[in-house]
């Protein structure tokens, strides 16, 4: 195991992404769905691979056996094609006027939520289209009252050779909460949609409903394909669902965010720290300056509630998070400038995890890893490769 510490460190702050962890998680998820019936795995790499680097994560996921890749926008899908990806690829969030022709030409499967989108896509066909039905999230997708017409028109367009309906799918509202009644209701609604589609003459290659949480917690929702985002990155999709000694516990977080301490110094009891003096030192102590702030995606809400890891100990953030920097309590120690500060990582060394940060600032780990960026430099390592091949990429 490569210690990211031993690799070259940039002067200020960096995000280190271990692609071996991504491959481990993909293999683990493939094992979860490996049964009597073939179920394909889609690695969801939208939003720059949840902040981990879309192209690098996509390649690692494919190498570990991901059958599909999934992204939100056509632009993301085209960027994957430009990077050389040639496998099954679905996108699902279009705005009016989006370049469906480019997607179709690049062999990207697109998603239609409505008759309007279906007509737009058919106009540049023949296109491979998946239909999204809203089964209760009340977000994207065709509402139940529109399923019949969407399927009928899709079936007509298919007969005319203008589209091929390759998939029908939906998305859960509360799969991270296995006892939530919406799960059963949505799965039942999805089965209704599939029956209606069949009666309209549609024969999709794949039907799919499960995201990471449902993949891990709800086998009945696996259908032909599961769409895994957060679990691909090694973060628990259902931290509130109780502990687990199965696959959820075996996920390996891929991202470490770390920085170099700029300075450390003594402050006296009663001194106020950072803007607004929202924290005063109860006793004499020492503080350290970490050169990353909300301009780099460190949540401003982390002021006085989250902690970082310096010199083998948790060091609480004191006072407000600033745009470019945060102040941490070093408890009397004076580590030299340049000392490593781990904001979050896999947790193996005792450092906080993205989940710890999420709990501290009342959000989800998805937001922590996806938003961290700004002036952090991102580097990909491979702890399974001899020498832990490392490549630094500007973000
Ligand atoms: C983002 C997304 C996913 C992945 O969800 P995770 O909870 O990260 O696994 C799956 N499906 C759709 C439609 C999405 O937008």
TrEMBL record:
Pfam families hit by this protein: Ala_racemase_C, Ala_racemase_N
Function field: Catalyzes the interconversion of L-alanine and D-alanine. May also act on other amino acids.
GN (gene name): alr
Classification via InterPro entries: Ala_racemase (IPR000821), Ala_racemase/Decarboxylase_C (IPR009006), Ala_racemase_C (IPR011079), Ala_racemase_N (IPR001608), Ala_racemase_pyridoxalP-BS (IPR020622), PLP-binding_barrel (IPR029066)
Reactions catalysed: L-alanine = D-alanine
Keywords: Isomerase, Pyridoxal phosphate
PROSITE patterns documented for this protein: ALANINE_RACEMASE
Active site: 46, 275
Pathway(s): Amino-acid biosynthesis; D-alanine biosynthesis; D-alanine from L-alanine: step 1/1
SMART domains: Ala_racemase_C (SM01005)
Protein name: Alanine racemase
Cofactor: pyridoxal 5'-phosphate
NCBIfam families documented for this protein: alr
């Amino acid at each position: 195991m490569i210690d990211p510490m031993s690799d070259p460190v940039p002067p200020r702050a960096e995000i280190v992404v271990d692609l071996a962890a991504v491959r481990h998680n993909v293999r683990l998820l493939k094992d979860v769905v490996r049964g009597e019936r073939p179920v394909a795995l889609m690695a969801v790499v939208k939003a720059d691979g949840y902040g981990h680097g879309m192209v690098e994560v996509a390649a690692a996921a494919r190498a570990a056996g991901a059958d599909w890749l999934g992204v939100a926008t056509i632009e993301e899908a085209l960027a994957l094609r430009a990077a050389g990806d040639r496998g099954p690829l679905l996108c699902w969030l279009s705005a009016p006027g989006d370049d469906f022709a480019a997607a179709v030409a690049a062999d990207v499967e697109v998603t239609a939520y409505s008759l309007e989108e279906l007509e737009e896509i058919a106009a540049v066909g023949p296109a491979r289209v998946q239909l999204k039905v809203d089964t209760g999230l009340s977000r994207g997708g065709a509402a139940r009252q529109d399923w019949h017409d969407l399927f009928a028109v899709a079936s007509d367009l298919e007969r005319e050779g203008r589209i091929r309906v390759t998939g029908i799918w939906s998305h859960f509202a509360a799969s991270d909460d296995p006892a939530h009644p919406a799960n059963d209701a949505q799965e039942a609604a999805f089965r209704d949609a599939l029956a209606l589609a069949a009666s309209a003459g549609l024969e999709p290659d794949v039907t799919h409903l499960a995201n990471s949480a449902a993949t891990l917690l709800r086998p009945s929702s696996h259908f032909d394909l599961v769409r895994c985002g957060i679990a691909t990155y090694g973060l628990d999709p259902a931290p509130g669902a109780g502990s687990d000694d199965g696959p959820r516990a075996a996920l390996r977080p891929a991202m470490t965010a770390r920085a170099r301490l700029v300075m450390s110094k003594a402050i006296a009891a009663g001194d106020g720290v950072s803007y607004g003096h929202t924290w005063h030192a109860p006793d004499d102590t020492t503080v350290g300056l970490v050169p990353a702030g909300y301009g780099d995606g460190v949540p401003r809400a982390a002021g006085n509630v989250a902690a970082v890891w310096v010199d083998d100990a948790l060091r609480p953030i004191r006072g407000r998070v600033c745009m470019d920097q945060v102040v941490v309590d070093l408890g009397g120690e004076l580590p030299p400038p340049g000392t490593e500060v781990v904001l979050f990582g896999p947790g193996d060394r005792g450092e906080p995890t993205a989940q710890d940060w999420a709990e501290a600032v009342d959000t989800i780990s998805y937001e922590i890893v996806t938003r961290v960026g700004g002036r952090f430099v991102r580097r990909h390592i491979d702890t399974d490769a001899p020498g832990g091949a490392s490549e630094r990429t500007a973000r």
